[in-house]
Amino acid sequence: MIGYTTVGTNDLPRATAFYDALFEVVGLQQLGKFGRGVGWGTAWDKPCFAVMTPHDGQAATAGNGAMVALVYRDPAQVNAMHAKALALGGKDEGAPDDRGGGFYGAYFRDLDGNKLCAFCLVKG
């Protein structure tokens, strides 16, 4: 159902460098640059992640209560994504842990304050 998600930035080159380095951890590369943004994923016909400057020209702000959750194959990838985000200057919003019910997740904010979750489902 999800085609792509987008978060806003006020500094596209800085955000692009952050996400290039972050997604490198799990082998994702840019799918392309387009106007005000950049997208990452495995293919355009699969769910993608993008960062863009706002269309209206106003400042990008992190949505209160908004979060993008990105699924990974195992806890090691979740741990690696969280650690890399913090090493790149992101803010910790919840260390990697078993959250119950087979959900293993970690939470962080990017350089613009956008909240993301890296998670995987584990069999008990």
Report what the structure shows:
This protein is α/β, with parallel strands linked by helices and 124 residues long. Helix content is 21%, strand content 38%. The strands form 2 sheets. Strands 1-4-3-2 form a 4-stranded mixed β-sheet, with helices on one face. Strands 5-8-7-6 form a 4-stranded mixed β-sheet, with helices on one face. Strand 2 (29-34) and strand 3 form a beta hairpin.
List the helices and strands and how they pair.
Blueprint: E1 4-8, H1 12-24, E2 29-34, E3 37-41, E4 48-52, E5 68-71, H2 75-87, E6 91-98, E7 103-109, E8 115-121
Parallel strand pairs: 1-4, 5-8
Antiparallel strand pairs: 2-3, 3-4, 6-7, 7-8
How far apart are the first and last residues' alpha carbons, in Å?
Answer: 27 Å
- Provide the CATH superfamily: 2,3-Dihydroxybiphenyl 1,2-Dioxygenase, domain 1
Structural class: alpha/beta
Shape summary: globular
- Helical proportion? 10-25%
Please give the count of helices: 2
How many distinct beta strands? 8
By CATH, the topology is: 2,3-Dihydroxybiphenyl 1,2-Dioxygenase, domain 1
Counting structural domains, the number is 1
Give the CATH architecture.
Roll
